[in-house]
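The records we work with from here on pair a chain with its fold. Taken together, the tokens spell out the fold as the letters spell out the chain. To see the layout at work, look at the sequence and tokens printed below.
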Amino acid sequence: GTAIEQAALAQGVEWGYLHFSFDNGKGTRQNSNETVSFRKRYGGFPWHIPPCLLGHQNQKIVSENPYQAKNASNEQVDLFAVVRNPYDRLISEYRYFKLMVRKSKNSGAYQMNQFVQKKLQTVEVALRQKL
């Protein structure tokens, strides 16, 4: 996903996390306040939310629907998704979590199992509430 977002940015298109972040003037990007609020509430990022789950409740957090056209002619936009092997995706998310969030290299089967169970509970609750 990130490689596709970076390739699009080189063409002036802000997809995914780039849509919900801004250049902080230090050569890096920073999440918007909306993104921070969304992540605190739902435990994930808004660019990972499919259109069917973008209900009125999270519109209070994400003021703009990321799936609507942002061009002058308001043309219809085509949607696409990058689909990964779910196991590879989960391992990637866990590695991100332990290195970036927990800033720890120590992990094992028990820690990853706890992480997976918490993520599955979050998804289950979100699907029941449709966000």
